[in-house]
């Protein structure tokens, strides 16, 4: 019988985490206030993270740190310090998106397991192969992978797999969305998404919420995911509160623990529990290809929650609602403008009808809600949460969790060596000592283990002690205690070395070679003589001397065909390949006489990421198109011609497998226009403006001009985030 998968719940704060544990979650995922993909929620301070670790240890649960955003070059030291602080607590894994963060984790914290975020966009077995090569122990699959594709990938890999089973869906494929960033510099790849996909858009054929997805719901699919052997089932929702966590965890725990024959009878009860989570309309997401046209419903306002009324009057100190559902003190509501833009949210703390304070107001009644926020007149009111048990008492009683270490002790006749296994970059402590042979009572592994668990340091705890004794020696309790005290003094002095100083000394500069100028030409196939290399569009066959841009998305059943095309291209003399996703490295590493360049949408925002791609086989690395000028220049000055900057082209800002309900030109009612292009396997959203950087302002690096979706001299241009800070 297959092992029951782990049920993994979101935790935006301690109350949500404890609620998840109380309702049957095996693990939670949670982030710090910075460098995680849900920075809009409350998140955790390092101190609260310590309390979370203490609660998890007491309950036999796991905690995964989300560090799953792109990190800019000028943020690396701060990011490393954040990792240093939390990795001392020994989280059960760290979830990463940025391959630069992954590289830093392997170097500074090799004892912490690594999970690839869904933001890495891994969606086939070739991607799993690269993940394994990078030291990743679990991959959180792209959310737009079907059940059939999951089944095929599972049969070809031994790496742990994690899939989302419930919650909000992004319309875009993970890790490639620039929609929010393009609209104002708030990057979804950095936890700052402003959710422009939830707005109303207009087309010549009408208007609607063309990019707003229904929520994912998979209760009926849980038995099949168990049969597949998926290791972890993940509930989305770190922006949601404890009531949502309680309902979703309880419902999925019920079905997860049920025997197959019992599931049908339990489904109605589980659905009833889940309905109290107050999300959007349910869908099967991308699990079935036949449902790709049901993921977006353009007539449905893209807000979560249950509609409960409309704002009919607004005045100083509050607003009045005409109710269609009951409301209670303690409920959480959001007031949504008709545009679909995100409206204000609040918890009801005080209501009145006439001059009388009320605890409850019924459907059909008018009620005044006290509020100091500005609310839109005629805005629709949605209930997004209900009051749940307050766990502040337990939270306040949680101990401050110690930093934890694992010790390895090796004992010989002339030396006792102590190594901190969890921090191998620490030089071991070597204590020279002459241990007399034991005549009767030899010191045992148990003696060492018991003694060395005592650190005498309230901020430092020993999780595990491993002891290797070469021989039989007599050691008194006093001598053993003295060795332990020597070790404690050394730990107090040495633990932990701040990696910041070492990090700042990394000054290797790679700037050899002459900058290359590369053009991706349009479908007309006209190649000017100016660029060093020219490329044809993805669907065309390149000729010798040209680069072939590999498709960034390739479903599992199309992988054999792509491999065959690459082999045929190589036989025809193609030597230059442009990788746009990590999985391409697994397809190309069988050739030793090719030239590899990386390209959008494979992100590189910092020098560890740059050098990681060089290690994988890239000879030229394109810097991430979202970055601002100072960060681009920092990397360009470091790598020179090895670095490439995307200087011109119409960037796809959203790419999806969903069958969008509109095509052609759309606009958002504020003057921003976009073009939807439907391709064979997915659809892309392009802005009307072309991305263009000023050539005279760029450092001496390689450049990339993309004319696959832009004419050479378009008038409507934008420099994206080049002149503003990417947040």
SSE diagram, text form:
Elements: E1 6-10, H1 14-22, E2 27-31, H2 46-59, E3 62-67, H3 76-87, E4 93-96, H4 99-108, E5 114-116, H5 125-133, E6 138-140, H6 147-154, E7 160-167, H7 179-182, E8 201-203, E9 206-208, E10 215-217, H8 222-228, E11 232-235, H9 242-256, H10 263-275, E12 282-283, E13 306-315, E14 318-323, E15 327-328, E16 332-336, E17 345-347, E18 351-353, E19 356-358, E20 360-361, E21 366-370, E22 380-385, H11 392-397, E23 403-411, E24 415-420, E25 429-432, H12 445-452, E26 460-469, H13 477-494, H14 499-504, E27 517-520, E28 533-536, E29 547-549, H15 559-571, E30 576-579, H16 584-588, E31 595-598, H17 607-616, E32 621-622, H18 629-639, E33 643-649, E34 654-656, E35 664-667, E36 673-678, E37 683-687, E38 690-692, E39 702-706, E40 717-718
Parallel strand pairs: 1-2, 1-11, 2-3, 3-4, 4-5, 5-6, 6-7, 7-11, 10-12, 23-26, 27-28, 27-39, 28-29, 29-30, 30-31, 32-33, 33-39, 38-40
Antiparallel strand pairs: 7-10, 8-9, 13-14, 13-22, 14-21, 15-20, 16-17, 16-22, 18-19, 18-21, 23-24, 24-25, 33-38, 34-37, 35-36, 36-37
